Amino acid sequence: MKLLYYFTVIFFILLSIGGQAQNTTKDSLKPNIVLLFIDDWAWNGTPVLMDEGMPNSQMPVLQMPNVEKLASQGMKFRNAYPGAPQCSPSRVCLQTGKSAPRSGFTVYMGNGGSDYYDPNPEYSKFPVVPCVSDMTIDDDAVTIPEALNPLGYSCAHVGKWHMRGSPKDEGYAVHDGNTTNKPGNQEIEDDPKLMFSITKKATDFMEEQVQANKPFYLQISHYAMHAGFECLPETREKYAKMPEIQEYYRKVGKTAETIGRRHRDPATWMGMGDDLDGRIGAVLDKIEELGIEDNTYVIMVSDNGYRHFFYPGLTQPLHGGKWWVWQGGIRVPMLVKGPDIKPGTVCNDNVVNYDFLPTFVDWAGGQPEKLKDIDGVSLAGLMRGEKTSNKFRNRYLYFHYPHYRTSMPHSAIVSGTQKVMHFYEAPDIPMLFDLAADEGEVKNLAAEKPEVHKKLFKEMMHYFDEVEARLPKSNPDYKLDNYKQANGYNERVSWGPFKGDRSLEDDEK
User: Fold this and answer.
1) Is 344 left (phi over 0), alpha (psi -120 to 50) or beta?
2) CB neighbour list of residue 335: distance below 8 Å, 6 or more residues apart
3) Alpha-carbon span 171 to 219, nearest angstrom
């Protein structure tokens, strides 16, 4: 009897071990996901040509061989959008799969104790009363780790968070806490923008998960390429010697020694990009070293559009920049490589960063269709090369910025190549653009195609009503003279609404 008992115990132990091994094997087959999230990077801010027919859709001079390698190994997205024209709401969109108007998190600013209109006295005589924003991610929102943890994933977020609250509360096992821009502005000579220490923490996490035979999601949220430029001294020296940058110094009456390095020096900005590329390469090398390259997705994307002041020999391809829902503020570079993604491919369909959550769930073997109250859709099929439907290609993307800053309260809807913009200061100026023919948003077609404008505008406002988005209101105390005296008035109105054709800026001609 004892012998039978021992055999029975041994049998169940072996069965248990076998079951654990089977589960481990099952989990290990799930793909790893690495998201390289870059701060403040224009669509034309990389050396990758985002459109083969547009020489100005790249940043010449900047050397980023690892980014170029990533583009050659995977899919390039010509029409990738962030969820918002500013970093914090864009980050919330990414984490939750929700558009900014749905989440209510539309800017990173205090609400002054109000739950709707902004009580800031600075705006008391402006044309409209702007809105406040939600301050944190909604408690009932399902975030990336909250969706992936039940599917067997370990999740880490290193670098810039900037959404208030703690990454731990959203399900991240490894994180740097409630970080803002400040940690990335410490001017550490051998660790500019903390990119070296961030990368070390990220690669250590990957190594630990591979040793544990556990699939992982890793978000590396870099402080580069945000203003407050930093790079290694030797990298700056390399760029400062380049003829294009020497010419820029002469143009602005500065030298490599006298120019302000933190905000206006192209050599430091280029050096920051060069150093960042080295850290991206370190991540790619570690993935290869760990033997998980064939089972790991790598995404590189920016949090919002930008307008880089240094653009040697070329004109700016897009209008506007950060804080604006012109294309310059809401178009970003995006590259993805991984299983089933054919190298060297290009996607011309519109994608947006709130598509990431359902895509990641899809990759992880979950059911993205069960995610509730989200705006994103899975891009897994698209990346596998499946043909997209007309419904997908013409779906509605919503952008909402009901605030003043360097910009003014305004919104936009994009469907295919059609785009409607609405400025709350000038509701009587309808704005419609055909992005296929007018990438730079020069010609307002609303007067020529009023029905197209009416349809898209109606859809946008219906959606805002449906998700209870905050909307600015006309200000009865508006004083034009006061408005003209406000800081940034000329810059603000110069990028405002217009009828007919707008005048090109010097760097767009």
Assistant:
1) left
2) 48, 67, 70, 71, 74, 75, 76, 77, 299, 300, 301
3) 13
Contacts of 289 (CB under 8 A, 6+ apart): none
Whether the Cβ atoms of residue 400 and residue 102 lie closer than 8 Å to each other: no
Tell the residue number behind the tokens 């459109």, with chain if given: 51
Query: What's the start-to-end Cα distance of the chain, in Å?
Result: 93
Return the closest-CA partner of residue 191 out of 230, 248, 147. 230
Q: Angle at Cα 38 formed by Cα 463 and Cα 303, nearest 5°? A: 10
Q: Which residue has the tokens 């035979």?
A: 213
State the pLDDT at residue 111. 86
Question: How many of the other CB atoms lie within 10 Å of CB of 26?
Answer: 11
Q: What is 112-137 written as a DSSP string?
A: TT-SSB---GGGTTSSEE-B----S-
Report the DSSP pairing between strands 296-302 and 334-337: antiparallel
Q: What CATH code is assigned to 103-140+391-509?
A: 3.30.1120.10
**Cβ-contact 298, 36 below 8 angstroms:** yes
Domain boundaries along the sequence of the chain: 29-98+142-385, 103-140+391-509
* Whole-number Å distance between alpha carbons of 99 and 279: 30
Q: Which residues pair with 296 in a beta bridge?
A: 32
CA–CA separation, 63 vs 276, rounded Å?
10
Q: What pLDDT is attached to residue 59?
A: 96
Query: What six digits make up the tokens of 375?
Result: 């705006």
Could you confirm whether domain 29-98+142-385 is CATH 3.40.30.120? no
Q: Residue 443 gets which letter from DSSP?
A: B
Q: What is the pLDDT of residue 199?
A: 98
Cα-based torsion angle of the residue sequence 398, 403, 408, 412 in order, rounded to the nearest 10 degrees: 10
Cβ–Cβ under 8 Å, residues 266 and 229 = no
Q: Is the pLDDT score of 14 beyond 90?
A: no
Phi–psi pair at 156, nearest 5 degrees: -135, 145
Q: What is the DSSP letter of 159?
A: E
Characterize the bridge pairing of strands 154-159 and 174-175: parallel
Which of 284, 281, 160 lies closest to 225 in space, CA to CA? 160
- 241-276 burial code (b ≥16 CB/10 A, e <16): ebeebeebbeeeeeebeebebeebbbbbbbbbbbbb
C-alpha span between 58 and 363 (Å, rounded):
30
What would the pLDDT profile of 312-354 be if each residue is shown by its tens digit? Answer: 999 999 999 999 999 999 999 999 999 999 999 999 999 999 9
pLDDT of residue 28: 60
Does the pTM exceed 0.70?
Answer: yes
Q: Let me know how many helices (H) and strands (E) the chain has, helices first.
A: 16, 14
CA 123-124-130 angle, to 5 degrees, is 50
Q: What is the DSSP string of 360-416?
A: HHHHTT--GGG--S------HHHHTTPPPPHHHHT-EEEEEE---SSS-SEEEEEET
pLDDT at residue number 27: 59
CA dist 175 and 218 (Å) reads 10
